Amino acid sequence: MTLQQWCFSYRGRLGRRDFWIWQIVWLLTMTALFTLAGNNLLDTQMAAFCVVCLLWPASAVLVKRLHDRNKRGYWALLLVVAWMLLAGNWGALGSGWHTGLGRFLPTFILIGMLFELGLLSGSAGENRYGRATQPVSYFRRRGAEKSSHQ
């Protein structure tokens, strides 16, 4: 798999190693963006633009990892639900609702997805989303890849 397919394509499957590499890259990028914006070294709107630009590659990696687990990409919407529950104002409903809907349920979703995608191995062999996972070629040149598939 090429670097472009890794970041921008929703087709295919992605193994745990490349999933964790993306998570580290994403975490370091977010940390740098928020640190620069917090210290007024980067405009807040530019940092927000960069975060929005990272949504596509983040979702592509997530969907391909779900495909490796033989699950539809729609399962990624659980993370959107968790984010919405975390951002919700549940205080008006009382402390039980705040704890349950605002903290427990999103935490349960996030830990479940992290366990599913980061720790469990993908389905063996070919599944409905393609061949078994192939590692991402981070430093391979385009010409070298074409010659290896012929």
From TrEMBL:
Pfam hit, one: DUF805
InterPro entries with a match to the protein in the record: DUF805
Keywords: Membrane, Transmembrane, Transmembrane helix
Entry keyword GTP-binding: no
GO cellular component, one term: plasma membrane
UniProt key word RNA-binding: no
Official protein name in the record: DUF805 domain-containing protein
